[in-house]
């Protein structure tokens, strides 16, 4: 059994994670998916809710657990990692905006601080 924690605030990141997980999960298996959408005060308020809706839709057959948190993304994601103890953490390379280039500060901070595999998903 593998537990995946998807940290997202973007429909783009969530869609990329669903594509990644479709090839990793066994529909008859007992893998768990926890989707944590973080409402960043600097991002539009509906983004986290939209990301959760995409996860529920695209990963419906795997019945992901979902939750929404508010606050600074790195702090909230690290708290979720402590609470859920996932085997893998899935994150986007940046906020999911078209103007980002490369790996953003949230992903970089998580890569430096998390003690388990961190998958930085390429965006479509």
TrEMBL record:
Stretches assigned to the UspA domain: 53-122
Region of interest (Disordered), ranges: 87-106
Domain of life: Archaea
Pfam families: Usp (PF00582)
InterPro entries the record matches: Rossmann-like_a/b/a_fold (IPR014729), UspA (IPR006016)
Protein name (database record): Universal stress protein
């Amino acid at each position: 059994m593998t537990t995946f924690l998807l940290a997202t605030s973007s429909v783009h990141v969530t869609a990329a994670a669903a594509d990644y997980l479709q090839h990793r999960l066994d529909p008859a298996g007992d893998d768990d998916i926890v989707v944590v959408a973080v409402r960043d005060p600097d991002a539009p308020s509906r983004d986290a809710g939209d990301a959760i809706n995409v996860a529920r839709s695209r990963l419906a057959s795997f019945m992901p657990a979902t939750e929404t948190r508010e606050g600074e993304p790195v702090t909230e994601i690290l708290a979720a990692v402590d609470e859920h103890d996932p085997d893998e953490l899935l994150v986007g390379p940046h906020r999911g905006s078209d103007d980002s280039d490369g790996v953003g500060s949230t992903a970089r901070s998580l890569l430096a601080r998390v003690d388990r595999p961190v998958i930085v998903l390429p965006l479509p």
